[in-house]
Design a protein that fits this description.
The protein is an alpha+beta fold. The chain contains 3 helices and 3 strands, in the order H-H-E-E-E-H. It has a 3-stranded antiparallel sheet with strand order 1-2-3. Strand 1 and strand 2 form a beta hairpin. Helix 1 runs antiparallel to helix 2. The protein is elongated and about 50 Å long. It starts with 23 loop residues before the first helix and ends with a helix.
Length: 120
């Protein structure tokens, strides 16, 4: 067996929208960038720049492109706000969208203050 190598991708303090890196798309991008670093196809600086552009692009898409409205009903078990990033854990949730209603036992929401996003 071998040991796993993980790379640290630094972000500037101004870019607080790295939460999108925890999505399936973000995790795939990070995995690919790590593989490219291991095979010496790219260096750490280029990988960091790609991730910063990903953060900016995801922020733009979420703020400017998406316009669907959703309604979420459930019981909030925990919540917190750190640096204008909200984290909420909900139970017995019903989500209503333009496509219908969906139910789930648990839902985790991580959201950024949109006023903060427009200023960056």
């Amino acid at each position: 067996g071998g040991s796993e190598t993980r790379f640290f991708f630094p972000c500037s303090r101004a870019m607080s929208y790295e939460i999108y890196r925890k999505t399936a798309l973000g995790e795939s991008l990070i995995s690919t960038l790590e593989e490219m670093q291991v095979s010496q196809q790219i260096n750490e600086q280029l990988a960091a720049r790609v991730l910063q552009q990903f953060d900016k692009s995801m922020q733009t898409v979420m703020n400017d492109t998406l316009s669907n409205k959703i309604t979420i009903k459930g019981t909030c078990k925990t919540y917190r706000n750190v640096n204008n990033v909200w984290s909420m854990h909900l139970r017995d949730v019903t989500v209503t969208t333009d496509n219908g209603t969906h139910a789930t036992d648990r839902l985790f929401i991580c959201a950024c203050d949109s006023k903060e996003a427009k200023g960056k």
